[in-house]
Amino acid sequence: MAAHAPEFAKRGVKLLGLSCDDVSSHVEWVKDIEAYTPGCKVTYPIIADPNRELIKILNMVDPDEKDSSGRSVPSRALHIVGADKRIKLSFLYPASTGRNMDEVVRALDSLERASRNKIATPANWKPGEDVVISPSVSDEEAKTLFPQGIQDCWPSIQ
C-alpha cells in the first residue's frame, strides 16, 4: 500500500490502515514495510484494533486462519469509501494472500469515471480503453453526453 501511495494521492484518495496489533507493533511493522520497499514511507495512519472489534464489524475476519492463541486473524481486506461515506467496493483476500494494488488503482479509476460519466468498464479495462455506456442512458442522452460519438458494437441489440 505504501509503495502505491503516490498513485492514490494523484487520485485524491486518503489511505487508512487497520490492524489487530497494538500501536507499538505498528511502529516496528512500519520499519519492516519501509525496509522491504526502499524509498517507500508509510505516511498514512494505522488504527490499532487489538480487541478485534472493528475487524469484526467490517467483516474483515478470515474464518480459516488462526493466530498462535487460536483467535481468528484478519483477512487482507480493503474497502473503498466514496465521498458520500458509503462503501463503493470491497476486496477480501484470505490472510495468506496479499492484495493486488495495481487492481485497486484500476478499480479506483473505473469507479471515478463511472461516477462522472454514466459508464461501466469491462473486465480487465485500463484507462484509455473503451467503456460501456450505462443501459439507463437513452440514445438521445448518449449523443449529448458523448458528443465525440459512440461506437455501437453489440450485435445482440442491432
Automatic annotation (TrEMBL):
Domain Peroxiredoxin C-terminal: 116-146
Keyword Ribosomal protein appears in the UniProt entry: no
Catalytic activity reported: a hydroperoxide + [thioredoxin]-dithiol = an alcohol + [thioredoxin]-disulfide + H2O
EC number: 1.11.1.24
InterPro entries referenced in this protein's UniProt entry, alphabetically: AhpC/TSA, Peroxiredoxin_AhpC-typ, Peroxiredoxin_C, Thioredoxin-like_sf
Entry's Gene Ontology BP terms: cell redox homeostasis
GO molecular function terms attached to this record: thioredoxin-dependent peroxiredoxin activity
Enzyme class: oxidoreductase
Record carries keyword Oxidoreductase: yes
Source species, domain of life: Eukaryota
Designated name of the protein: thioredoxin-dependent peroxiredoxin
Species annotation: Salix udensis
